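so my prof wants the structure for this chain in the tokens format not the other one, which i didnt know existed until like an hour ago. anyway here's the sequence
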Amino acid sequence: QVRAVESGGGSVQAGGSLRLSCTAPGFTSKRCNVVWYRQAAGNQREWVSSILTDDYTRYADSVKGRVTISKDKAKDTVYLQMTGLKPEDTAMYFCKTTGAGWCFGDWGQGTQVTVSS
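here's what i got, hopefully its the right format
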């Protein structure tokens, strides 16, 4: 199973921006979807955004309008551009590939996003 690697997290003030990266070698050629989730301390993991093989994108209501998901097929990397960050966006962010067979990936280590008010 493929395991994606997340990066790009950090600490920012409210209103700031971050771009998270999710690299999963082979996901483009294997035609996998990619999803981002986040988990705040003491909370369940929640879905944030998805990008499908046909580049269709979806967003959770909590981030819609502030987050853009995109992919660089040449790099097998999916980006999560986050703007207008709020303290409630503070969480560990995870990505994984989804789909049948090879595409059913494992969770990565995550990347921490901390937003201070």
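also thought this was worth mentioning. DSSP finds no helices and ten strands in the chain.
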